[in-house]
Every structure is written in C-alpha cells, then in structure tokens.
Amino acid sequence: MKNKLINFLTTELSAWPVLIIAYYAITAKPTGQWQLIFNLPVSWLISSYLIAFPLLLTNVPKLRHNPLKMRSLSVQASLKYHSRLNERAKRWDDEMNLAIFLLERGSLMLFSEPLLLFLMSYRGMCWLHHFL
After folding, report:
1. Domain limits at 27?
2. Residue 110 half-sphere exposure, CB side, CA atoms within 13 Å?
3. pLDDT tens, 33-89?
4. Membrane-crossing residues (predicted)?
5. DSSP helix/strand/coil, 73
6. DSSP letter string over 28-49?
C-alpha cells in the first residue's frame, strides 16, 4: 500500500510542471497576466492530470520507465579518463535527461485521456470476445 501511494505521488508530481505551463498557455491573457478560469480545455487538462494519467501509468507499467536516455559522446569517450570535464558533461547529461523526462511525461499526460479510452475499449472488446 505504501509503495502504491509513493508511485501515485511521484506520478502526479512528474507531470505538475507541464500542467502549470499548459494551464497558463490556455488561460493567460494576451498581456501575459495570469487568470483563473474554468472552461472545457481546462477541465480536460485537470481531469487528465488527476484521473487519466495515473490510471494509464498503473495499467501500462511500461510507460513508467523513460525509454529516452541521453548520454553524450564526450562522456562515453572520457569514461577511460578521470577528468573534471567528465563530471561537467555528466551533470549536463543529467539535466538534459530531466528535461527529456519532463517533456515525455507531460506529453503523455496531455494525451492520457484518449489513450486510456482506447485502452479501455480494447480491453472491453477482448473481454466481450472472450465471453461470446
């Protein structure tokens, strides 16, 4: 139970920056002023963040692991040598991996409702086919 709660919280927190950015892009005035409104795109965004995204990640565990990992050529080449440039390149790679992870999680969150509906309809059809 504790592990499921931790997984749920990390899932929610990993998509939080994209939720904030997407909400601002949808609702901001042309002057850039933040405003709090509730319309159809905002309700879709919030429901996909709170409901569909965690359900999708619990039903398809392969989506939990980021397949996109960046490892620069300078780090690969300098693994033989111990230099300070290697540490700097590793830190840069870590920052890029975090950015790629947030981008991947954010895009997955934005498309989680259609993907979850497709997954539920596919499993429902398989279930009906099995019993008929």
Report:
1. 2-131
2. 15
3. 888 888 888 888 888 888 888 888 888 888 877 777 777 766 666 666 666 667 777
4. 5-26, 38-60, 98-122
5. helix
6. --TT--------HHHHHHHHII
Could you tell me how far CA 41 lies from the centroid of its own chain?
A: 18
Flag whether the pTM goes above 0.90: no
**Torsional sign, CA 88, 18, 57, 1:** positive
CA separation for the pair 99, 9 (Å, rounded): 19
Name the token pair of 16. Answer: 């939080």
Where on the phi/psi map is residue 32: left (φ > 0), alpha (ψ -120 to 50), or beta?
A: left
Q: How many domains does the chain have?
A: 1
Contact 49, 15 (CB under 8 A): yes
Cβ atoms of residues 101 and 66 within 8 Å: yes
CA–CA dist 116, 60 (Å, integer): 10
